[in-house]
Amino acid sequence: MASTPRSSSSVGNRKPAQPIIRLRFKCENMQRIGAFKARGAFHAIERLKQEPGWLENDGKRKGVVGFSAGNHAQALALAAKENGITAHIVMPSTTRPYKIDATKGYGANVVVCGPKDREAVAAQIVNETGARLIPPFNHPDVILGQATVGLEMQDQVQNLDAIIAPCSGGGLLSGVALSCEGTGVKVFGAEPEFEGADDGRRGYYSGNRVTEVNTRTIADGLIGVVGQMPWEIIYERRLVSGMFAVSEVEILEATKLILERLKVVVEPAAAVPLAVALFNEEFRSLVEKEAGEKGWDLGLVLSGGNVGVEGLAKLFS
Fold first, then answer.
1. Exposed site from 59, 114, 247, 298, fewest CB < 10 Å?
2. How many domains does the chain divide into?
3. 265: Cβ contacts below 8 Å, ≥ 6 apart
4. Tens digit of pLDDT for each residue in 218-239?
């Protein structure tokens, strides 16, 4: 897909940037459970099995605990099932029913709780069962699992200049950043801006990690604050070169473009990197300045495709 210059009126009557961008898509919507989260969950389970004494001390029966409103829940449930491990998954009552059903379908013991109680309930289950907590992003083995996205992109695309990954808790973005450290490949984060959903961007440029956000963005897969461990990689180690945010209209337009042009199904959160590449004038100006006439080969992570038919219909109604 080619980069399309924007009109002067859409950028405040300034001359719009016209960078040369060649887009490469990493389709994690085609991953198992429909999202990149499978990578982190399977890697964390594999490392747990290798931990001295875990199997011998009845680790499989005690199981693992996760808390998630979506893709991590399904990923951990599947990874546990395929390894014969009990899975306890805590999901808030606001979770979409089809996601709860999918998690149960993988054999997990699903515990539904209040919207803000998931971590407390997960801790209680750990105390009662002796299960091991595997959180959705604030865990080294989960981050390293997500890092394989960046490793594969570098292997599959020669002379890749940069990668944009969506950012919520920061597990994917920090993992991709780790995979690109020292390679010359720049890594950028993408977020929705609606109602302060761009907590990662605001924290990155203020120097203070945002610890609370309340938003109803259509990119609901990106609702959440950056965890402490990803933050250390993203900001403190400066492995991410910049953070950018886009509007709801731009996310919707990017989602529509992916559906109609790429012929693949993605959730709105997955379309945010494309929205940045096409519509964020700050990012486009950066590419124009740094790449010049050569342009950039830009990798975009389509993070997931877990959206129902009714949800898609509602988006475009």
1. 114
2. 2
3. 29, 259, 305, 307, 312
4. 999 999 899 999 999 999 999 9
